[in-house]
Amino acid sequence: MKIAVASLNGQTVCGQPGRCRTFILFDTDGFEVLEREVIEFSENYVLQGFSPDKAHPIDKIDVVIASAIGEGLVNLLQQRDVIAVATSVKNAEEAAQRFLDGDLPIKDAKKKKRNKSPLPAIFSTCLKKYF
């Protein structure tokens, strides 16, 4: 099992893996970490906005861990058969090992922000006033 942890400095877990170019790749046997490698994607391979139809290095990963992750990226990674989780654990190696142990604290994915337009309220007020 291969686990990629989003990290800016090669040590700690960071958020926004869709924009992150640096990941720590942990190669595991499913029970413990065997190897650790820092990988960096080129700007062309940043996950956010990457076409789901094209091959990507993340396709060889089983799990992505970050400190925050949005629903959109979770869905995109699911299409690629990659599990995506957010956690409060700060140390990257600890996060990978705790995922393997089944005791990684998981945070909910962030919901997409919806633009709230004032127009529906205006229409509602007008309808009440004139009808």
Automatic annotation (TrEMBL):
<protein>
    <submittedName>
        <fullName>NifB/NifX family molybdenum-iron cluster-binding protein</fullName>
    </submittedName>
</protein>
<keyword id="KW-0535">Nitrogen fixation</keyword>
<dbReference type="InterPro" id="IPR003731">
    <property type="entry name" value="Di-Nase_FeMo-co_biosynth"/>
</dbReference>
<feature type="domain" description="Dinitrogenase iron-molybdenum cofactor biosynthesis">
    <location>
        <begin position="10"/>
        <end position="100"/>
    </location>
</feature>
<dbReference type="Pfam" id="PF02579">
    <property type="entry name" value="Nitro_FeMo-Co"/>
</dbReference>
<dbReference type="InterPro" id="IPR036105">
    <property type="entry name" value="DiNase_FeMo-co_biosyn_sf"/>
</dbReference>
